[in-house]
Design a protein that fits this description.
Elements (H helix, E strand, L loop, with lengths): L5 E6 L5 H13 L3 E6 L9 H8 L8 E2 L4 E2 L2 H7 L2 E7 L1 H9 L5 H8 L4 E5 L3 H5 L1 H12 L3 E2 L3 E4 L5 E5 L3 H14 L7 E6 L4 E4 L2 E3 L6 H12 L3 E6 L11 E5 L3 H12 L4 E4 L6 E3 L19 E3 L3 H7 L5 E8 L3 H12 L3 E6 L11 E2 L1 E5 L4 E3 L3 E2 H12 L6
Parallel strand pairs: 1-2, 1-5, 5-6, 6-7, 10-13, 10-15, 13-14, 15-18, 18-19
Antiparallel strand pairs: 3-4, 8-9, 11-12, 16-17, 19-21, 20-23, 21-22
Helix pairs in contact: 1-2, 1-8, 3-5, 4-7, 9-13
Bound molecules: ligand PMT.
Ligand PMT binds next to α9, α11 and β18.
């Protein structure tokens, strides 16, 4: 999986920097081309000579080499890389990454990199547990950085706790797994719905809900990263998608969303319906802004919207259909009923009772249930990680 891949290995100034030599060796042995970038303080822990000998490439630390005047372009490096892994990642470098402090070659290259970025934190237990670090880690996860969690054990300080950089073998396996998944959905077309729908009352008012689109966009990014061709049918949201494998179709109302989904579903292999679709719409949309003068009350008559999931479910054939259930009570019962009524293969249950789940949050906490009765509950994770759990579940890892 790593053969021929271009990997930037970022090394920062912590005692675990010595393990970076082993990581470099494993990646090179697996056929990857590895470009080491060290921060100045990393060079205090391990010599550049070790890294350049193992990788066969000169180690880069500065923006240019003083004696030759050679310029190292962080932009070119960012474009060259298929993946970037920062191991060890100190609390300081993680903070700089989270805030975009581009004061060294490593963080500057990180900002230029279009490839997936992995960070393997290493620090003392109290630094790892500090709320500042937790905030930075959450921000980086939100930015799409894959955090390879540190392990617990005896630390360089002789204290015991969480903070040890994960073993090089596991980091290399995580990268190999990423490249394996990168082709997992090749040749598949996936339809995803995201965001809210707006049901217009008049030209300036609507009935809507708080969906931000974050969960649906994370699913789209994850499917695209695994090689799928994605059609993202989204209600009105303020988000952008980066992948050129994602074709975005903007809609406003539930009826618009249904029309777009029916058209796209024809040649799809799978649909994931994450949108928070309004169940009702005003029967009549006023052509002009409704005036309040002379009106003490306003009656709005609502009519039922089509059920997009049930419509696609009725004609799904051998396509996979994954729905969401957003509940406030009787969560399980309602999710199971929706699987049946909408003819879904899987449903992702999230509850508004859960503070880490739901509208607008960067995290979600889900239970994934299948039509065949399987079920797995996951802890709270970033929406991108939840998206990965959903795809893993549907395609055979986990609860199949
Ligand atoms: O967008 P975020 O801010 O990130 O928030 C994410 C989310 C909370 C919106 C998402 O995780 C979620 O739960 N989406 C589904 C919300 C919802 O409408 O759930 P529901 O239980 O009402 O609907 C069940 C399923 O039927 C859903 O797959 C829904 O897309 C679909 N549906 C519902 C009504 C309708 N008329 N047509 C539909 O297709």
């Amino acid at each position: 999986m790593l053969k021929g891949k271009h990997i930037i290995l970022g090394i920062t100034g912590g005692i675990a920097a010595y393990k970076a030599a082993m990581l470099a060796r494993l990646l090179v042995k697996a056929g990857a081309e590895v470009q080491p970038i060290m921060t100045p303080s990393a060079r205090e822990f391990i010599t550049p000579l070790t890294l350049s000998t193992l990788t066969g490439k000169p180690v880069i630390t500065e923006f240019f080499t003083a004696n030759t005047g050679e310029w190292h372009s962080h932009v070119d490096l960012g474009l060259w890389a298929d993946a970037m892994v920062i191991a060890p990642a100190t609390a300081c470098t993680l903070a700089k990454m989270a805030c975009g402090v581009a004061d060294n070659m490593l963080v500057t290259t990180y900002l230029s990199a279009r490839c997936p970025v992995f960070a393997a934190p290493a620090m003392d237990l109290d630094m790892w547990a500090h709320p500042t670090t937790a905030r930075n880690i959450a921000a980086l996860k939100g930015d799409g950085v894959a955090i390879i969690e540190p392990a617990a054990g005896e630390l360089a300080s002789h204290l015991t706790g969480k903070g040890r950089m994960e073993e090089p073998e596991k980091i290399a396996a995580t990268l190999a797994d990423y490249f394996r998944k990168g082709t997992q959905l090749s040749g598949k077309k996936v339809l995803i719905t995201a965001g809210p729908t707006h049901e217009m009352i008049d030209p300036v008012r609507f009935i809507g809900n708080y969906s931000s689109g974050k969960m649906g966009f994370a699913l789209a990014e994850e499917c695209a990263a695994r090689g799928a061709e994605v059609v993202l049918v989204t209600g009105p949201v303020a988000l952008k998608s980066n992948s050129d494998r994602i074709r975005r179709v903007d809609v406003v109302s539930a009826c618009d969303m249904l029309a777009a989904c029916e058209k796209e579903f024809e040649d799809c292999d799978m649909a994931i319906l994450c949108a928070a679709v309004a169940d009702y719409r005003p029967e009549v949309k006023a052509d002009k802004k409704l005036k309040r003068e002379g009106r003490e009350e306003l009656d709005l008559r609502l009519v039922r919207n089509p059920d997009i999931a049930a419509t696609l479910g009725a004609k799904k054939g051998d396509r996979l259909l994954v729905g969401f259930a957003l509940e406030t009570d009787s969560e399980h019962e309602n999710a199971l009923r929706k699987i049946k009524n909408k003819n879904l293969d899987w449903i992702v249950l999230n509850s508004l009772r859960d503070p880490e789940a739901g509208f607008g949050k960067d995290t979600n906490k889900v239970t994934i249930l299948s039509a065949s009765g399987k079920e797995e509950a996951f802890p709270a994770k970033s929406k991108r990680e939840v998206a990965a759990d959903i795809i893993d579940s549907v395609f055979g890892k986990g609860i199949n």
